[in-house]
Fold each of these.
Amino acid sequence: MDVEYGQYSVILLVEGFPPSHAGTITVYEDSQPGTLNDFLGAMTEDDARPEALRRFELMVEEAARHAEEAKKNAGEAETSARNAGISAGQAEKSAVNAETSAGDASESARQATESAASAKQSEDASSSSASAAAQKASESSQSAAEAELSRKTAESAAGNASRDATTAAEKARESAESAQSAEQSRIAAEDAVNRIPPW
C-alpha cells in the first residue's frame, strides 16, 4: 500500500535478536508516492542508515549459514559414527566365525588322525578306513580354508570400522568449528546492532 504523509518509527526485527530502533521516516505531502520499504531504502545525503542495515543483514545471513553448516556436519558425524558401530559389529561377528572355523578344522584333523590309526590297525578294513581318513583330511583342509577366509573378512571389517570412526571424529570436529563460527557471527551481528546510533 502507499504510505500516507506523516512520521513512521521503524523497528528492525530479526529472529534471534532483540528489536532495534532503525530510525524515523518522515513522509511529506509533496513526497513521491511509495511504500515503507521504498522510503526506508531511500538514500539521502545525511542518511547512512541503509548501508548499516545492509551490513547487518549480511552478518545475519552469515550466522545462519554457519548454523546450517554446523547442523549438516553434526548429521554427517552421527551417520559416520553409526557406520563405525555397524562395521565394528561385523568385525566381531567375522572374528567369531573365524574362531568357529578354526575349531572345526582342529576337530576334522583329530578325526583324520583317528581314522588313519584305525586303518593301520585293521588290514581288513584298511581300504575303508583309508577312504574315511582321506575324507576327514579333505574336510580338515576345507575347514582351514574357511577359517582363513573368515579371518580375512574380520580384518577387513575391522579396517572399515577404524575408517568410519576416523570419519566420525572429523565430522564432529567440523561440526564444532561451524558451530563456533555461527556463534562468532551472531555476536558480531549483535555488536553491529548495538553500534547503530539512534536517530
Amino acid sequence: GASGLVSVHIPATVTNIGASAFAYCPLLMTFTVDSANSAYQSLYGVLFSLNGTVLAQHPVGRGGVYTLPEGVATIAAGAFAGADGLTSVIVPTSTTAIGDGAFASCANLAAVYFRGDAPTTGEDVFGKVLGIVYYPPTASGWGATFGGLDAFAWNAAVEAGAGFGMQGGVFGFNVVGSSGMVVIVEAADDLTSPAWTPVSTQTLSNGSAPFEDPGSVDKPSRFYRLRMP
C-alpha cells in the first residue's frame, strides 16, 4: 500500500474500484466521495457502495472497535487488510458474505462478534490473525472454527453464589463465559416499559469478571441483562 496516504477522495467519474485497492495503507484515515458519484458513498469516512450493502474499504489507519452498520451484506476483499490498530469488529445480522483476505494481517484484531448466521467466506479471510470469533448461540452455520479462527458461542451468564447480591451497599454479581469475551451489562428500573441503559462493559479475563452497579444504591428494584457488543 501507499505508506504516506492519509485521505482519499473518490470523484464522480470513478465508479469501479478494484479489490484491495487501498489495503495496507497504514496512515489512511478517511474517504470522501463526490456527491454525484453513482457507485460509492462515504459514511463517517468509511467507503461503501452507494446503496450501503457493500463495505468496500475501511481506512486502514483507524484502530479500536468498529461496528458495521445494519444493512451491509458483503465485506469486500481486503476491506480491513493491514489494519494493525483494529482490536475488534461487530458484524451485523445482514452480512452474508466476506471477501478474500478481508481481515488479513490485522495484527491486533482480538475478537470478531457476529450477530447473525455464519456468512460465506473467501480465501484467507483472517490470514495472519490470531483473534477469536463469537456468535449468538441460536445462530446457524457455525462450527468450532470460522475462517481458520477458533469460534465460540457467545454464552455469557450471571453466576449465582459468592459475589451475587448486595456487597458494600451496592448490588453485584459475577459474569461468566468464554475467556476474553466482551460483555455489556445493561440495567432497567422496571420491565413494564424498560429503558435499558448500559452500566458496564466487562472483559471476561480467564472466563469471568465481577460486576457492581453503583446505580442500585437508591433503587427499590433493578433489572439486568447481558448483551454482545
